[in-house]
Amino acid sequence: MIEEVEKYCTQVLSVSKCKELPFHNLEHTKEVVQNVKYLCAAMDITQEDTDILIIAAWFHDTGFSVTYEGHEDESKRIAIKFLSDLNMDKRLIEQISDYIEATKMPQHPTTELAEILCDADVFHISTPNFYYRKLLLRRELETNLDMYLTDKQWHDFNLDFLKKDHFRSDYGRKVLEQGKQENIKKVKRILNYY
């Protein structure tokens, strides 16, 4: 089933509005899927639960193909329809929908598995790749939300996000948080120039 989901979501993300998004595009989704696999392996999550999270990761941003704001609701709708057509168990579809809902900013996971998907979605804030990714996000916010900020405002915006967003899983709090703290220090150093 994962292969069918991957093929379908790749199609949605490749031929819709998503292909024009600098940040929330197919590459981001692939990264989130890989992050889910990495976190599940590090946390000894069962293969069945890992598979469910991988499916949720593939679908979590497909709603951008329909709308920018409130895309999670569309992502859930797309996932529910596709997975129902594949005759997936309704209980599993509800779980996947709940995991997608948890990624809505500010994130609000209520289970360990939802925490893993949320951490996988913002994993980049713990890596040196954060600086490249935030440039892509800046461009996306300008073109989709008319959110034009000065450089100082942009760095303040990022510092605020890094301070407010917290990793949810045990692994995220123990390991990924360290990289995020390094990025906070770097953003503060940048802001010292202003």
Write a short abstract of this structure.
With 194 residues, the protein is an all-alpha fold. The chain contains 9 helices and no strands. The model has no long low-confidence stretch (mean pLDDT 96).
List the main descriptive attributes of the protein structure presented here.
194 residues; mainly alpha; globular
Main pleated-sheet profile: none
Beta-strand percent range = under 5%
From the spread of the alpha carbons, the general shape counts as globular
Tally of helical segments: 9
Task: Describe this entry's structure for a reader.
With 194 residues, the protein is mainly α. It has 9 helices and no strands.
Helices and strands in order:
Layout: H1 2-15, H2 26-42, H3 47-59, H4 71-85, H5 90-102, H6 112-121, H7 130-145, H8 151-164, H9 170-191
